């Protein structure tokens, strides 16, 4: 009867332990699925937040870049419009002043012609009255006119020589100026190429340093992950070993207590349970080793893929930088070619202008000589007739009158020429001063606007960096708080499960005590 009761009670206890174990396993599985689902959802939420914030930051940067470009474009259009309007104003002033100076010259010429006309009428009237006196002067005047022709020819030849020397000097100075422009522009182009090469080299060095720093930081991160995961696995093994040792110890104590009552049956059970626990330890050890191997393979694969990605980035960036250098070189070569064509065209046009000036001046000199020759011939004929009718006394008077009037007219022409030259010099100085002051004003405006735009870009960059730092701190704080929350949940659930196990163990011990004290009554109730 005792063996039968022991068998029934053992079956009942095994069934209860089995059901309770299945229940606890089910609870652990469901809770693990729940916690995994929470972690997945939270990870998706955090990734979505990061993506949305990144899109927001990119959109802000794009919009601000468009705003800055629009401001620069509008300011450039405004400055171009100001330059165009000022140029039109200066051209209009020059045109009006030129018209004014031409009008003054025309009026003065008309005045001088009128004076000459009035004086000519006076002279003709005097000539009629003193014609007999001039008959004796005809020979002297003929000699004088020949001398005048000789002197005028020498003067015109001297003018041609001086003008030729002046034009040659202009060509030499212009050639020197054009050569200097070509040299300065070549130096400028070479300086631009050197500065751009230095800039591109600096960019390559900085990018290489950045990529090396990324590789070092990623390697440190991966090493830290491997260390932390290894520590986690070792901790799991340690905790599981302690748990299994504690289970074996508690079960051994329990079985030793039961052995007194159940003998060989319990020894057999103890052996089977020891084999079962050894098997569990073996399987769990293999599982942990497999996890370590798989995680190591995963981390190695990540390192390989990241290394390939970084190599690809370096290759693509190198190709991009080479392409930039090639395109910039083509651009600078094109600039040199276009500038050379422009300078050649300027030289050709200036040469044509100088040749045209020489041709026109030669035609002018020839025309002057022709007209003066005709004038002198006419004067000789007319004056010969006049001189035959002029007497000696009127000749002396006319010589004195002509001398005084010539001096007066020469003095008037000299003074008026000095006045007109002074006006042109003063107006030129005024216009140059206006252009210099306006250029300084426009340069100052461009400098101040550039400083303002740089200040705006710096402040906006600082603001965006501060936003990224604050958002990163906020996201890190959220992750820390969520991790603390999940750890607290796991801790509380573990405490709850331990409490359940303790309570169930106390209940089972109570059942055993009750069974030992009231065996027959308990079996009867159970049956």
How would you portray this structure in words?
With 527 residues, the chain is mainly alpha-helical. It has a domain at 139-387. It contains five helices and no strands. It has helices at 2-129, 138-262, 264-388, 392-517, 519-526. Helix 2 (138-262) packs antiparallel against helix 3 and helix 4 (392-517) packs across helix 5 (519-526). The protein is rod-shaped and about 190 Å long. The two termini are 14 Å apart.
Draw up the topology in text.
Elements lengths: L1 H128 L8 H125 L1 H125 L3 H126 L1 H8 L1
Structural class: mainly alpha
Terminus-to-terminus distance: 14 Å
- Report strand %: under 5%
- The helix content, as a percent range, equals over 70%
Put simply, the count of helices is: 5
Overall geometry comes to rod-shaped
**Biggest sheet character:** none
Rg, Cα atoms, Å: 57 Å
Order of SSEs:
HHHHH
Number of strands: 0
**Which parts are unreliable, with pLDDT below 50 for 5 consecutive residues or more?**
none
Q: Please, what is the average pLDDT?
A: 76
Provide key terms for this protein.
527 residues; mainly alpha; rod-shaped
Short description:
The protein is an all-alpha fold and 527 residues long. Helices cover 97% and strands 0% of the residues. The chain has five helices and no strands.
């Amino acid at each position: 009867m005792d063996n039968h009761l022991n068998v029934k009670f053992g079956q009942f206890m095994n069934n209860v332990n089995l059901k309770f174990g299945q229940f606890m396993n089910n609870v652990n599985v469901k809770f693990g699925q729940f916690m995994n689902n929470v972690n997945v959802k939270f990870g998706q939420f955090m990734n979505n937040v990061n993506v949305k914030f990144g899109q927001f930051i990119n959109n802000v940067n794009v919009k601000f870049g468009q705003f800055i470009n629009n401001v620069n474009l509008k300011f450039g259009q405004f400055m171009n419009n100001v330059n165009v309007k000022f140029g039109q104003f200066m051209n209009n002033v020059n045109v009006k002043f030129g018209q004014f100076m031409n009008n003054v010259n025309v009026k003065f010429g008309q005045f001088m012609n009128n004076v000459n006309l009035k004086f000519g009428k006076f002279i003709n009237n005097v000539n009629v009255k003193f014609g007999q006196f001039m008959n004796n002067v005809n020979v002297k005047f003929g000699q004088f006119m020949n001398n005048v022709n000789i002197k005028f020819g020498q003067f015109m030849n001297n003018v041609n020589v001086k003008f030729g020397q002046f034009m040659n000097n202009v060509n030499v100075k212009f050639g020197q100026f054009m050569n200097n422009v070509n040299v300065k522009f070549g130096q400028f182009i070479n300086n631009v190429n050197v500065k751009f090469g230095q800039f591109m080299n600096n960019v390559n060095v900085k990018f290489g340093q950045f990529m090396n720093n990324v590789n070092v930081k990623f390697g440190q991160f991966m090493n830290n992950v491997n260390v932390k995961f290894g520590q986690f696995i070792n901790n799991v093994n340690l905790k599981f070993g302690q748990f299994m040792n504690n289970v074996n110890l508690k079960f051994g104590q329990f079985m030793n207590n039961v052995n007194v009552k159940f003998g060989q049956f319990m020894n057999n059970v103890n052996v089977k349970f020891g084999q079962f626990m050894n098997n569990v330890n073996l399987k769990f050890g293999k599982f942990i080793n497999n996890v370590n191997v798989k995680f190591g393979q995963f981390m190695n694969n990540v390192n390989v893929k990241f290394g390939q990605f970084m190599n690809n980035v370096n290759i693509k960036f190198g190709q991009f930088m080479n392409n930039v250098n090639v395109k910039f070189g083509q651009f600078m070569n094109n600039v040199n070619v276009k500038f050379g064509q422009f300078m050649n065209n300027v030289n050709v046009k200036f040469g044509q202008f100088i040749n045209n000036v020489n041709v026109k001046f030669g035609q002018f000199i020839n025309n002057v000589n022709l007209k003066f020759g005709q004038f002198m011939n006419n004067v000789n004929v007319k004056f010969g007739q006049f001189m035959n009718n002029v007497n000696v006394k009127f000749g002396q008077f006319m010589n004195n009158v002509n001398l005084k009037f010539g001096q007066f007219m020469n003095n008037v022409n000299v003074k008026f020429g000095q006045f007109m030259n002074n006006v042109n010099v003063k107006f030129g100085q005024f216009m140059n001063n206006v252009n210099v002051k306006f250029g300084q004003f426009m340069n100052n405006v461009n400098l101040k606007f550039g400083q303002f735009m740089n200040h705006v870009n710096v402040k906006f960059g600082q603001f965006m960096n501060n936003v990224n730092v604050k958002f990163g701190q906020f996201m890190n704080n959220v992750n820390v708080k969520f991790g603390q929350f999940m750890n607290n949940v796991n801790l509380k659930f573990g405490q709850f499960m331990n409490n359940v196990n303790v309570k169930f163990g106390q209940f089972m011990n109570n059942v055993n005590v009750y069974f030992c004290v009231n065996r027959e009554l308990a079996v009867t109730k159970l049956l």
